[in-house]
Amino acid sequence: MSKNQQQEGTFKKDLRKIDIWSLALGAIIGWGCFVMPGTSFLPKAGPLGSIFGLMLGAIIMCIICCSYGYMIRKFPLSGGEFVYADTAFGKKHAFICGWFIVLAYWSLIPLNSTALAMVSRYILPGSPLQIGYLYTIAGWDVYLGEIALAYAFIIGLGIVNIRGIKSAGWFQTLVAVALFASVMVALIGVLLTKPDFNNLKPFFLEGQSKFASVLAVLAFAPYCFVGFDCIPQAAEEYSFSHKAALGLMVGAILVGGIIYSIVVFITSVVTPWGAMLAANPDWATGEMVMKSIGYIGVFFIGIAMFCAVVSGMNGFYIASSRLLYSMSYADALPKRFSHLTPQGTPKNSILFMMLLALIAPWFGRQVLAWIVDMTCVGAAMGFTYTCASAAKVAKRDGDTLQMWISILGIAVASIFLVITFVPGMPGFLSIPSFIILAVWIVIGIVFYLSIRNRYIHGQWEGISVEEILYTKMKTDGKM
After folding, report:
1. Domains, the chain, ranges and CATH?
2. 259, 180 in Cβ contact below 8 A?
3. CB 49 within 8 A of CB 216
4. Does 336 or 416 have the greater pLDDT score?
5. Please, which of 28, 108, 184, 370 could form a disulfide with 256 given CB 3.0 to 4.6 Å?
6. What is the residue-wise DSSP string for 383-434?
7. The whole model's pTM is what?
């Protein structure tokens, strides 16, 4: 270990249980939770079909969670899936896994920043942010005012994260609690108007079976619940036992499923949902809340959307910077990304993510959406590698129950990966997304070849990633 590495800061164990729960929930619930009921869920499944599909998706994701909880206990290190893949399958697989997840995590930072403009367009028709028209790209009008808003939050949240994980954790908790509270206020407000529950009929989409309705929404599970996997990235910063991580992930996923279901209910109970959709509303949820309890309800839904967007940005800042840190420390990325400040933050990794995120809004939201379409690919890769790694480690350690749970997780995660490449499935990638994916793979191959000797045959040759990071923890006096 070099002298410079010994003088570096160390991760601070400042994340409380509520912070970790908030990290997962904030990453799970995005602005789509408040838009998809009218655009994707109800048109494909009806109210109960949507709710059953969402909750079943949450339960299935909890199966995958079991492998994450197991690996966090075994290897409580920053880097998550990157570390797990190396543990079971070696450095080449670790690089492949990390390369895909980096893109998935990073892309959600600028996409969430541009979602702030989307929120303003929904809440404030003729949004004052739509000033300084620049150009139209892929059908999306780019405005200087909206770029300025995105910049403010990208930079602001970057600074919060640079200040330290304690600040980022407190911020995440505050925003996640506000998100949940705002949704509950909207629900209570709608219920106090005593809506006619017959408006929920037909409970399932007419013309197709109940099973098909549930399955249609279940296919969205990778998009709806991606984000809980942020938790293992900050494993070195827990102020509590790592055994609690599984319960926190499961709790966040189930609460996320409940929030999705509440928004579906609110959207479909105010007036007969079939007639409401036939009117082709611009924003079904917002219009139903306005019709039921007025602008005050729309205000709280707007607060919830804003909190969802901001908490997602903050969560993926934390996750992506810790992943870059671990990859860098293992020589899979340039060494500068593994620098820790005295506050215990990977400042260079955060700044790198910030600078990339600042470029993205200029390309318009549609181009970013093509990139984010690959989030499911990156997430499914992480899910599959984690479950496969857990199965292998559990078999090695004689934990038969965990081995079979992880094998079931592999099957589920593989299905999520397959649906992105099967035409007709909700997750099927668009042609531009396939092109971007191909470009990212080519860049990864070229980059890997350029760093292969240092990564495979350098100072850590023959040493696994977890051994590398454990060595650092011992040097830092954390073990």
Report:
1. 3-77+107-365 (1.10.4160.10)
2. yes
3. yes
4. 336
5. 28
6. HHHHHHHHHHHHHHTT-HHHHHHHHHHHHHHHHHHHTTSSTTSTTPPPHHHH
7. 0.87
